[in-house]
Write a structure and sequence with these properties.
Elements lengths: L1 E5 L5 H13 L3 E4 L11 H17 L4 E7 L3 H8 L6 E3 L3 H9 L5 E5 L5 H13 L6 H16 L9
Parallel strand pairs: 1-2, 1-3, 3-5, 4-5
Helix pairs in contact: 1-5, 2-3, 4-5
Bound molecules: ribulose-5-phosphate.
The site of ribulose-5-phosphate has 9 residues, from α3.
Keywords: Isomerase
Family: Belongs to the LacAB/RpiB family.
EC number: 5.3.1.6
Amino acid sequence: MRIHVATDHAGLELSATVRAHVAAQGHEVVDHGPVEYDALDDYPSFCINAARAVARDQAAGVEALGVVFGGSGNGEQIAANKVQGIRAALVWSEATASLAREHNDANVIAVGARQHAVDEVLRLIDVFVATPFPGEERHARRIAQLAEYESTGAIAGHEIH
Ligand SMILES: O=C(CO)[C@H](O)[C@H](O)COP(=O)(O)O
């Protein structure tokens, strides 16, 4: 699995720990920055670049997921979700980590570096990466509706106003 990682200053230290952890499990890690601490850096471009790389890889048939960090993870999730084809989930417990995959087929996990102990974050990421999307019809149907809205602005058979 290729794992694309991005953060901002708030998650930089944690990002290094997570990248080493994930690489030690045999995954290929691609870091989208930042490369050094700058308390005034801005998360959008880092997270959008990671999300674009996930979308590109998946479109090419490469098994890939993304991990984005920030202080809360909120802005990072929002940034990643601006990229077509990305389903970024803000994860804050083992249950939301597994549900993000099982129900949402999330391809990016957003985590708040200031909200958890390091061990907890590693566990959230492990659960997210290890959990498959079983493809249950009702979940696949809802995900397809999101994709349809993303590309057409409409959802066939549903009123959008
Ligand atoms: O979580 C974030 C966005 O959702 C950012 O990491 C957070 O807003 C950065 O805050 P500050 O500039 O005060 O360190």
